Amino acid sequence: MKIQSRLPDVGISIFTVMSRMALDYGAINLSQGFPDFSIDRKIIDLVHQFMLEDNNQYAPMPGTPVLRSVIAEVIDRSFDHHVDPENEVTITSGATEAIYAVVTAFIKSGDEVIIFDPSYDSYDPVVRLNGGIPVHINLSYPDFSVDWDQVRARISNRTKMIVINTPHNPSGSILREADMRELESIVLRDNILVLSDEAYERLIFDGNVHQSVLRYPALASQSLAVFSFGKTFHATGWKMGYVAAPAFLMEEVRKTHQFIVFSVNTPIQLALSEYLKVPEHYESLGTFYQKKRDFFLEQMKGSSFVPLACSGSYFQILSYDNISKKSEVEMAEELTKKFKVAAIPVSVFYQDKSEHNVLRFCFAKKEETLAKACAILRTI
Ligand code: GLN
Fold first, then answer.
1. Coil/strand/helix, residue 91
2. Prediction pTM value
3. Please, what sign has the CA dihedral across residues 260, 262, 267, 272?
4. Rounded to the nearest whole angstrom, what is the distance from the C-alpha of residue 96 to the centroid of ligand 1?
5. Ligand 1, from 34, 313, 314, 361: best to mutate by most atoms within 8 Å of Cβ?
6. How far, in Å, is the centroid of ligand 1 from the Cα of 169?
7. DSSP letters for 167-198
8. Nearest Cα to 274, choosing from 137, 88, 71, 108?
9. Which one, of 39, 97, 98, 79, lies nearest residue 272 by Cα?
10. Where are the domains of the chain?
11. CATH 3.20.20.70: does it fit domain 41-279?
């Protein structure tokens, strides 16, 4: 039987490819973004306790009310923004499901969606699966900032949504207040929705403030903000996240969410609702990861790799321009197979496959892992 692929140009995600290659070649895996250290024992005990107490059946479709209420408090505390937990918060199976549910809820055939490259690999395919047209705009290099004049020039009467991501994966750049003001003026004038991927909201360094869309009331009134517990609590394998949005938008998101996963697992939601009551559990993350970034950079001193600025996320971009002129994909392969350190080529996140001779390294690792990797990288 012949089938017609709906995504003929899409292969297996680069994260899967590189993690697999790291495993096959026994390389230190700084490619796919996930911590190699244990999560807090307290939250494991909470999950266990809620399971033993018979909380093992379906959660309500939008999420357990107690978790949604605590999230509303966290949002209030963090961004000085009020959301109604009943109608404006939905628990999802990670940020990736949230993105799928949001795009599917609003994008239809012919709708244009602005995406900034390098972009997280799910945005473009999800838009296309819904018949939408991704409009890719490259961030400037090497600071990965947005050229808002270019954005204004690419808006058409079919522009339905702009996707932003701060702190940014893969670059580690962040949006500033001035960016949010530009975005706000554009989307308010032209009635455009904002999908704000804030998975790395807590991983922000050097005294910078996370610019959530939720900090800006007018912007928040037409935005859907997506968050990730996997990133915040080092538990990427739990696939837990949430969306916050005004009720009239959330009503539509729940329609798609309920047919993607229906609801998200119950005991972890209950455990998170307890764990989130202690702000220290999430407010210490910036300092924690800034130390890791600094340790990584310190260990890289004297190397021929050159670090680019990193203000957030757990990714550090390194330029190998002084070392080789190989393509990023070739360089990532050589690094993994020959030198036994795996990283992610950034070119795969560009629609036009832009090459800057840079690789993305994940520093969400134990110091000993980072030290071992850097000892190798310093020899190259
Ligand atoms: N978000 C992680 C990264 O950027 C990986 C996600 C995934 O493997 N799908 O590396």
1. strand
2. 0.97
3. positive
4. 9
5. 34
6. 9
7. SPTTT-----HHHHHHHHHHHHHHT-EEEEE-
8. 71
9. 39
10. 14-32+284-377, 41-279
11. no
Count of beta carbons in the 10 Å neighbourhood of residue 319: 16
Backbone torsions φ then ψ of 178, nearest 5 degrees? -60, -35
Domains 14-32+284-377 and 41-279 share a fold: no
Cβ–Cβ < 8 Å for 129, 7: yes
* C-alpha separations of 6 from 119, 127, 351 in Å: 20, 12, 17
Residue nearest to atom 7 of ligand 1 (CA): 15
Q: Mean pLDDT score of the chain, rounded to an integer?
A: 97
- Residue 20 Cβ < 6 Å to ligand 1: no
Which residue bears the tokens 């059946």?
57
User: Tens of pLDDT along 172-213?
Assistant: 999 999 999 999 999 999 999 999 999 999 999 999 999 999
Determine the pLDDT at residue 58.
98
Q: Nearest Cα to 126, choosing from 226, 210, 59? A: 226
Q: What are phi and psi of 269, to 5 degrees?
A: -60, -45
248 CA → ligand 1 middle, Å: 30
Nearest CA to ligand 1 atom 1: 33
Class of domain 14-32+284-377: alpha beta
